[in-house]
Amino acid sequence: MKLENFRSRDRDVISELLSSDRPWASYALGDLSDLHFGLSRYYVNGPNLVLVYEGLQPPALFLFGGVGALRFICSLLPAGDYNSAFTGEPEAIFPEGTNVVQLKRMLRMTLDLSGKTFDTGVAEELGSKDADAIAGLMVHYPENSFHPDQLAYPFAGIYLDDALVACAGTHVVNADERVACIGNVVVHPEYRRRGFAQQVVGKALTLLSDQADLATLNVAVKNKEGIELYQRLGFGTHCRFNEAEITLPEPKPEV
């Protein structure tokens, strides 16, 4: 069986499949937007889906569905490195010979934006002119995934004395699917515990409210302070999942 046999380019089919669990599928739904669809490869096997997003290096790998079907599709993927997101344990999902490193236990948190208002304090909307300032602030968040292209989406920040001291951004938005994924939340160490994180996230959510009804984010299970922040903003936990850097082995030849 060839991998290409499972490739789907039908956005309506993909959207309907993923709609059975929109919070878990939020990033994959976001990648159906015109900005990302050309960089996304969706493989569908019944109610199961594997997404390879090539806009990042290494590519992002998202798994949606049952273990057996996902393991089969993963066994057909090209060998190499991927940043993966999946529920369950890696040894059950990935083919034999997969190398898994830096496994992180994560929460997917969600918020219904309908009718919500937020305390935005002194936070302001950021744009392309702020790209260098954001990149400079990100040195305090080494695991960030910021790219200037993300400034096409809502970003918020706080400047004090002409220095950016806090920001929160958006990874992906799909107004057709009414879904947004936020992230890159960082506060300069000297300005923490002043409520700035809540203000910039609140501002980002306010800016998103005309494009999305569902907002999601990822946070490490061990990040208790971050979880409490998002709970104060109204987020709830949808599911636990794993992130990991993996290296897939060469696909086995067809018999």
From TrEMBL:
It comes from the Bacteria. GO terms for molecular function: acyltransferase activity, transferring groups other than amino-acyl groups. Residues 98-255 form the N-acetyltransferase domain. InterPro entries: Acyl_CoA_acyltransferase, GNAT_dom. CDD domains: NAT_SF. This is N-acetyltransferase domain-containing protein. It comes from Candidatus Coatesbacteria bacterium RBG_13_66_14.
